[in-house]
Amino acid sequence: MSKEMLNALDALEAEKGISKEIVIEALEAALVSAYKRHYGQAQNVEVEFNQKKGDIHVYAVKEVTEEVMDSQLEVSLKEAIKINPAYEIGDKIRFEVTPKDFGRIAAQTAKQVILQRVREAERTIIYNEFSAYEKDIMQGIVERQDNRYIYVNLGKIEAVLSKQDQMPNEFYQPHDRIKVYVSRVENTSKGPQVFVSRSHPDLLRRLFEQEVPEVYDGTVEIVSIAREAGDRSKVAVRSDDPNIDPVGTCVGPKGQRVQAIVNELKGENMDIVEWDEDPAIYIANALNPAEAQDVIFDLDNPRACTVVVPDYQLSLAIGKRGQNARLAAKLTGYKIDIKAESDMEEFYAKLEEGDYIDEGEFVTEETVDENAIDSVDEVIENSDMTSDDYENIAFDEEKED
C-alpha cells in the first residue's frame, strides 16, 4: 500500500496540480476521525503519514503526571522515566497505538479523501477557467432541455440558458452549435455553475468584435446598444479617426460583416447609426431609417424631446408597435415624442411670431404672459417705483396711443 499511496499522490500532484502536502494534511485529519469511529478514542490521537515510506502510524499522546487519573490520557512520572530519564511532569509522550487492521481503514479513508480533493480541485480549476470568460462569448453545443433551462455543453461544463435569456424567434435542438454570452459564473456547493445568454445586448457587442477588427482594436467604438432580441437592434458607433466611417466599417463590403451577425442571430434586423456629441444629431441618427426634420428639446425635462418628421414618414419613424421610437429612446437615453410636420404648423407659426425662448424653444401664450409678469415684478422690485407707479405709466402710454 505504501508505494501505491505515494504513486497516487505524485500522480495527483502532476496531473491535477493538487499539492501532496495538502492531501496528506487532509488525510491525517480524516484518519483521526476514522480511528474515533472504529475505536472510540480520538481526543488525544495523532496520525502521522511518512512521506518517504508511505507508512501510516497512529499515536496516543499522554501527559506525564504524578498520579494517573485516566490511563488513556495520562502516564505516571515513574513510567515515563523508564522510557527516558529526562521526562518531567507536564511533558507529552507519544505512544504508538496503530491497530493491526488499520491499514484497511486507512486505504478506504485515503481513497475517499483523494476523490474529494480531486473533485474540489476540478471545481476550482473549472471555476477559475470560466470566470475568465465571464462577460465574454463562447461557442457551445445544445445538449438537452427541461422546463427551466436549455443545457449547453461548453467543454468542461454544462452551462444553463434560461427562458428569459433565449431568443423568442429561435428553436434549440440537440447538437445545435450556438454562440452564447457568459453572463455570470457562480461557485455553488454543487460546483461551478455557468449562466449564458442569447438575448443579452453585450452578445451583440462581442459578435461585432469578432467580425469587425476595427471594433476589436478600439478604432471604432460601440457607444450604445438597444436590443429587442430576435427582432431588431440598434447600435451606435463612433470613431476618433476622421478617415474612418464607423457605420460603413461595421456594415462591411456589400454588408458582409453585419450580415454574418444577422445570420448568427437568426435574422435579427440591425440598424447601425453614428453617434454624435450633438444630442439633436444623435437622436435624428437613432431614428434611422426615418429622416428627422427637427429635434426640439423640452426645457422642463432636459432628457426629453420632440422630433418632427415628414408626414409620409411618421409610421416609419414610430415603427411597428412603436419599436423604432422605443429602440431609439433606449439607444440615446432620451424620451422621444414623434410628431408629423403637419401637426407642427401652429408651433412654427409661433416661432415666426417670436413667441419663443432660449435655444428656439417654443412656449405657449400662457407661458409668455407669466414670463412678462415675472419680468415686471422684477423691474419694480429692483427700482424705487411702486406697482401703482407702473400702472400709471402703462395708463399714460395707452392714452398717448
Beta-strand portion reads 25-35%
CATH-level-4 superfamily name of the largest domain: NusA, N-terminal domain
* CA gyration radius, whole angstroms: 39 Å
Task: Quickly give the structural class.
Answer: alpha+beta
CATH topology of the largest domain: N Utilization Substance Protein A, Chain:P, domain 4
The whole-number mean of residue pLDDT values reads 82
Specify the overall morphology.
elongated
The major beta sheet can be summarized as: 5 strands, mixed, barrel
Runs in which pLDDT lies below 50 for 5 or more consecutive residues are 356-401
**Total count of helical runs of at least 4 residues:** 14
Class of the largest domain, according to the CATH hierarchy?
A: Alpha Beta
Helix content: 40-55%
Keywords: Cytoplasm, Elongation factor, Protein biosynthesis, RNA-binding, Transcription, Transcription antitermination, Transcription regulation, Transcription termination
Family: Belongs to the NusA family.
Subunit structure: Monomer. Binds directly to the core enzyme of the DNA-dependent RNA polymerase and to nascent RNA.
Subcellular location: Cytoplasm
